[in-house]
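Continuing the series of single-chain predictions for the mutant panel. This is the parent chain; the variants come on the following pages.
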Amino acid sequence: MAAKTVLNYLPRKSVVHELTGTTKLAFFLLFTFAGMLTYDTRVLLGLLAVSLLAFRASRIRLNEIRFMLVFMAVFLLLNNFFVFVFNPNQGTEIYGTRHVLLPLPGRFAITAEELFYLLNITLKYFVALPVAILFISATDPSEFAASLNSIGVSYRVGYSVSIALRYIPDIQRDYHSISQAQQARGVELGKKEPIFTRLKNAAGILLPLILSSLARIDVISNAMELRGFGKHKKRTWYAQRPFARNDYLVLALGVLLLVFSVVITFWDGNRFFNPFV
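Parent structure:
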C-alpha cells in the first residue's frame, strides 16, 4: 500500500525522522534557496551529493515514492522541451559562444551551450527533489503544522496544511475502495479497455469521491468548532519537540551550504559557470 500512496508521511527510524519539524523546514528552505540561486554546475553537483546522502539516510525506498519520481521526470522532460522550443539559443546568449552539434530546420539547432544550459536546469530539479520528498515523507503532519507556526505562520494556516496532508492518504484510500466497488459492478477500469473508455469510467468515481470528501469535511469542521478552534491567538503543540544536537548541526549545515552557494556562484560576478571560455 505504501508504494501506491502519494505525498504521504512514511515513518522510519532514521536520523532524518528524528529531526524536529522546524529543523527540516528551515533546512528545506535554506537548501532550496542555495539551489535556486546558482547555475554553477560545480555547486549544483555538490548540492546534489548532499541531497542524495540525505535521502539515503532517511531509509525511504524508491518504490515508495515511485509516482512522484515519474511525475517529476515527465514534468522535467516537458520543461526542457519547451525551453528549447521557445528559445533554442538561450545557451548561446548566456555563454557567449556557439558550438553547433546538430543543425535543424529554421532557427533550431542543437548546440553544446544549449545542452549545457538544460543540464543545469535538470540538476536544479534533481537537487531540490530528494529534499522536497524528504520534507513531505519524513515529517509528521502535526509536527509540520507546529514547525510552520514556529516560524511565524498563523496556527490556523498551519493546522489547515496539516489536515490537508493527513487527508491525502484518505482520498487515495477512498478512491481505491470506490474503484474496486465499481469494478465489482462490472465497470471495467483495467488495461484491457481503451484509454478513453477507462477515463470515462474513472470519471464515474469522482462524484461519490467528492460526496464522501464533503461529508468528512463537515464532520471535521463541526468537531473543530465544538472544541473552540481559532478562539485564541496562540496555541501549544503536542507534536512540537525541543531542539537536540543534530538539529543545530543540520541548521548549521544548511547555512553553510547557502553561503557556499552564494560565494562560489558570485565569485566572478556571474551566476553561470562557463566551460566554453
